[in-house]
């Protein structure tokens, strides 16, 4: 990867008496939306409190790129990064490189997080990382435009969404040719795996691989889900949607050029920012059903301490601080990052800034996990095979049934090498 590695020093004034024991910790942060800024500010608060220094390692935006870079660092047993920000689907893939936090983080702190997310971070009894914020896919919509075109509520089904998006798009394009009905993550990367998982489950098409490791993707409902999504391209979604990631979709929606958007909770705070053309005009709802159920893919990020860190005790202290209630509350209020601590969903300050945290609580607690558990170290290969198959359907290279049939064979080949 040619992306330059940016280090940003955050140094607290260190009093003379603590200089001898002060250490420097390098923390890998994401840079999507407000992530980098909030990560930097949280680290600075810990540095000021402890007298230590934190260097921020700016990670690539795309999850796949970030994973590749991390794997290079970890395979080399590099001590350059002490604390890594880990996707919820990575613990099974990277567990051997991280300190077991059981016994090093107090049990009461661990138990304050949602059990399902702690379980996702536990591999063979080892607690690989501590949850930092959780995610689930959401449907964003323009409240003013729904009212303008005679709709009283957000769509409950994908069919309703497509009809509403088309009507609004046709009307708005009379004065704004750039206007789109629906924007989402169609680029061939992990974001597409997340979007497409939601389509599959909402249509009753399974989860690619089930909890027992059985390959379930080859079914008619999964094929129907992919064909339905493909029908949106060049209809209610621009042709370019097959190149969009989260930020591309958010940019279009926030500029006032889309009626609906699929994105993560972080987009809410930015959409309410002073520079947003849709401030005060955004609604948030569960993603529509394909006839089976509403489905949101479980996302979210955790903090893990590298076994190659030369300052593990300080690194663990930083993780505990950043994942603690005070920092999670700040991140929820300032950036709409969903807490992993159950208590914060009843916090009046958090709910005042993010009212949908309360009304859509069940969306977050019942989000659908990607099959990283059963596929273990092969998850990344399975996900790449899946997103590539979906991408072929979206671009018209394949139809849904042909794609899921071939995909089942491809995943069986991956499984044959053991997972």
TrEMBL record:
One Pfam family, please name it.
SBP_bac_1
Q: Matching CDD domains, A to Z?
A: PBP2_TMBP (cd14750)
Q: Does the keyword Isomerase apply?
A: no
User: Could you name the domain of life of the organism this protein comes from?
Assistant: Bacteria
Q: Which residues form the signal peptide?
A: 1-22
Does the record carry Transport as a key word? yes
Q: Which UniProt keywords apply?
A: Signal, Transport
The family line of this record is:
Belongs to the bacterial solute-binding protein 1 family.
What's this protein's name? Answer: Extracellular solute-binding protein
Question: What species is given as this protein's source?
Answer: Deinococcus arboris
